[in-house]
Amino acid sequence: MHLGRNRALFPRTPNRSAWNPLTLAVLAGVWIAALANWPLWQSLHALPEMQGPRGTLFIIAFGVIVACLTTLVLALLAWRWSIKPAIGLFLLAAAFGAHFMGTYNVVIDSTMMTNVLQTDLRETRDLLSLRMAASVIVIALLPLAWLWRRPLQAPGALRQAGRNLVGVVVAVVVMVAVAGALFADLASTMRTHNTLRYKINPLNSFYALGMLVHDANARPAGPPVAIGTDVALAPPAPGAKPLLLALVVGETARADHFALNGYGRATTPALAAHGVVSFSDVTSCGTSTATSLPCMFSHLGKQAYESRDQDFENLLDVLQHAGLAVLWLDNQAGCKGLCERVPHDDAYRLAPGAAPMPAGLCDGGECLDEALLHGLDQRLAALPAERRARGVVLVLHQMGSHGPAYSKRSPPGRKPFMPECTTNVLQQCDRQQLLNAYDNSIAYTDSVLGQAIDWLGRQSGGYDPALLYLSDHGESLGENNLYLHGLPYGIAPREQKHVPLVVWLAPQTETATGVAMSCLQGRRDVALSHDNLVPSVLGFMRAKTGVYRADLDLFAACRGRQP
To answer: By the 8 A CB rule, do 257 and 438 touch?
Structure first.
C-alpha cells in the first residue's frame, strides 16, 4: 500500500520513445510564435522603422519573447493528463485568431471577444471560408494529428513539477534578457504602435476572455437597478393623438455613405423623397454592437457607462414604467439583454393573424430587413390598448449592412451598384466591387426606412407618427487595410464611429410636439453622439423623469418652433 500510494511521486520505467510534457510545451510555444503569429510579424514588418537589418533583428527577438511567453503558460500545464488538451486549445484559438486578424486586420481585445461570444449561427456562417479552413488545418489540425499520436512519459509528480519549474524559470530569464537587450526599441515600438499587443496570438484571446470574466464579476449579481420609476407623461397638446415612434436601430451603417450627408452616390433616394433630416456629425458609443447597443440605450452616457460598477435598467424600461406600449422587434443576433423586460419578438416569426411571409424575404435561416415591417399592423394591434392610448415605441433592430457578406444584405434585383463583391474574404475583393456591395446594403436600408415611413403615414388616423433611425457603429472598408469593425475605441478610425442619424416627423406630429422639421434641418451639423438617444426619446415621448437630460435632447432646441 505504501508503494502504491507513492507511484505518482516516483518515476516509472522510462519509455524511450515517449515525450516529456514540457518538451511538447516548448515545441508548441515555438510553433505558435512562428506560424500562428504571422499577422503580428506582418504588421511589424510593414512598419517603417522595421526596415533594414536592425528591424529584422528586432522582429526575431520579439518572436523569441512571444515563444517564451507562450511556453511559460503551457509549462504550467505541462502534465501528462493536461498538456495535450491545453496545446489543442492553444492551437485552435491561435488558428482562428490568425485567420481573422490576418484577413480583416482586426485585433482581439475584450470588445472583440464579446462579439465572438455573442455571434449567432447566421453571423458565423457568413464568416466561413476556404481560407479559414486552410488556416485551421495548417496551424491547428496537422500539428494536433501529430501530437495525439505521441506517447507521453509518466515521471513522478515531483520530478515533473521540478522540470516545469525549470521551464518557467528559463522562459522568464530568456524573455528578460532579450527584452533588456532591446528595451529602447521595444518600449518605443509598443508605445507608438500599442495595437500590437492585441495581436500576440492566442494569449490576446485568453487575456480578453479573462478581462470579460473579471468585469462581469466586478458588478453585483442580480437584476439591474431600477431607473425612471418617477416617470410621468406630460399632457399632450389639445387635439394631439398618441405618439407612435418607430426607433430603427441600424447596423454597421457609415454616415459618409449616406447621400443625405454628401456621399456622391444615390444611396438614400427614398429618405430624400420623404424630406427627412439627416444629422451629419454623430459619433457612436462603441465600435461593435455588443458595446454600442447597451451603451446607447443607457441613461448614463458613454463615459459613465464604461466606468459603472453596477448594471441599470435602460430606456425601454423607463418607457415601460411610463405606461407606454413598447415592442422590440429583432432581425439581428438579439437585443443584448435590453429587451428582456419588455415585449419582444424576432422578425422571422409571423405575427398572429399576419399573412404568410412573402417568398424570398426569409431564406436560408435569415431574413431581409423588410421582414421587420411584415405584419406590423397586427403587432401594433396586439399591444395593450391602454398603453397604446398613451403612446407607442416600436424598436426595429436591423441586420442592416452587417459584414463581411454585404451582398446578402440586399435582395436580388434591387442592387443599383454592380458588379458587387460576393466573397466574405474582403481583401480578395476588387475595391470598387466591395464598395458596390456595401452601398447596395445602404440603398436597401434606405428602401426599408422609406417603407417604414409610408407605414407610419398610414397610422396617422390614430397616432402622431415619427421615425428615428440611428446606427450602432460604422465599418472599415479597406481604408488603411482595415476591414469590418470592433477596433479598440481609442484607436479606431472615424469610419467605425461616424454613424447616421435620421429623423422624420409627420406634419401633424410637428404640430402636436411643437418640434419643427425646419428647425431640426438648421441644426443638422451639430455634433451629437449616442449619448443623445435616451434623452431625445424621453423628451419626444413627453416622459418626465429624473434621468432625462434636456441638454442632450436633440429636439429640445426646436421644441416650441411651430412649422
So the answer is: yes
